Description:
Shape: elongated
Helix content: 40-55%
Bound molecules: adenosine-5'-triphosphate
Order of helices and strands: HHHHHEHEEEHEEHHEEHHHHHHHH
CATH superfamily of the domain at 286-485: Transferase(Phosphotransferase) domain 1
Radius of gyration: 32 Å
CATH architecture of the domain at 286-485: Orthogonal Bundle
Strand content: 5-15%
Largest sheet: 6 strands, mixed
Strand order of the largest sheet: 1-5-6-4-3-2
Amino acid sequence: xxxxxxxxxxxxxxxxxxxxxxxxxxxxxxxxxxxxxxxxxxxxxxxxxxxxxxxxxxxxxxxxxxxxxxxxxxxxxxxxxxxxxxxxxxxxxxxxxxxxxxxxxxxxxxxxxxxxxxxxxxxxxxxxxxxxxxxxxxxxxxxxxxxxxxxxxxxxxxxxxxxxxxxxxxxxxxxxxxxxxxxxxxxxxxxxxxxxxxxxxxxxxxxxxxxxxxxxxxxxxxxxxxxxxxxxxxxxxxxxxxxxxxxxxxxxxxxxxxxxxxxxxxxxxxxxxxxxxxxxxxxxxxxxxxxxxxxxxxxxxxxxxxxxxxxxxxxxxxxxxxxxxxxxxxxxxxxxxxxxxxxxxxxxxxxxxxxxxxxxxxxxxxxxxxxxxxxxxxxxxxxxxxxxxxxxxxxxxxxxxxxxxxxxxxxxxxxxxxxxxxxxxxxxxxxxxxxxxxxxxxxxxxxxxxxxxxxxxxxxxxxxxxxxxxxxxxxxxxxxxxxxxxxxxxxxxxxxxxxxxxxxxxxxxxxxxxxxxx
Length: 518
Ligand SMILES: Nc1ncnc2c1ncn2[C@@H]1O[C@H](COP(=O)(O)OP(=O)(O)OP(=O)(O)O)[C@@H](O)[C@H]1O
């Protein structure tokens, strides 16, 4: 700047008042000469210096704008989190304040944004009992995965197979072999299930074709497929496997694969090839509970009380098995309606168990899965991240409420006092309006007594004090009693006449109010 000032001072005084001739030519020539003169700054010409100064000023202004914008965005995210779920705020804040916010955290916020009224969940499918409601939910579709050319052959000892086409499910009893005679396919086996090759799965799903997409969740895209032996399968192509080591992946998958229960979706096998990590499940052919509760089913839901009770019981049994029938026990972490799959006979099976552990083995890895799903997460888990099977019981309580009412756990399209299902239901029960909470799409309502008992189970499950929540075994017992009552009622033919009689009005005793509502 000092050099500039000196140059300006050096300008000849007469140039402002040049008379006669062509003054503009003269000034242009003069300006040219003046700008072209050398400065003491590295011998640069004056116009170069001015250019650099202007450029630097522009960069500075842009930088300031960028800083302002990112501050505003961070602030907005925090406000959003606070509005959506106060209990999650602390956790979210920590994440948002990390120096390099990860994609997962952006995903959490994106998901929570999706819960807002501006983007109400679309009915996933047109439902008809005969036809599986399997159209992929459009709002969840992300980029289709790029299918890399399968590696021609695996390196010996890498544990990967490179079979020729047409391989079918293999017997899982034999130990894995990694070597093979020339020309023969390498075959790998595990004790519990099957190792599928990428080629097998591509054939089963027509090359992971778009029309075979059943749906998409936080873990990846799910495809319907048919094996050579006509077995229907569901193939979950895991996204973000985070470069999880092959061995670690297998150990975890094996653990999940050994779990067998009629109310848990069976894991048939997996595929590990190159960057691919896929899980192959039994195909459950009638969509998921979320679709049947919140999809477009018309005026009357096909889900009768009987069916709903069975779904509650089946889910409870699947969960009880994970919690109480296995050593070490498995905490599902993401019990919700879309993880309850249904078959044509309305048998319910819990899916996605164990996946949280499988995909979140790095401690620092925070996903929607660790967070659970908005609306279903137990308060203590949301606020401290501490997790045990009681958090599943809480989510199960929310699920029962959803099944009884047909309402989503969080629904921003509803009036203020009804947005949060748990809070609304507590209020309704406290105001002795329990019978008004039943899903209006249920043609035949349960009797007040039966309804009251089911609600009691739900309320006990969502007890803010985790230690007071019942164990799943106990929940089964309570639900079975309820189911028995319902069947007795039906037999006696009383259910239609005295459904909402004054004596059995679904109200709670004072003690129950105190215990479960407040
Ligand atoms: N074994 C299966 N048989 C039939 N359909 C399945 C099977 N597994 C998953 N699906 C369907 O695929 C869809 C996506 O499932 P996925 O479990 O990946 O996601 P989600 O449960 O919808 O969401 P999230 O990622 O939060 O768990 C669901 O709509 C589910 O109905």
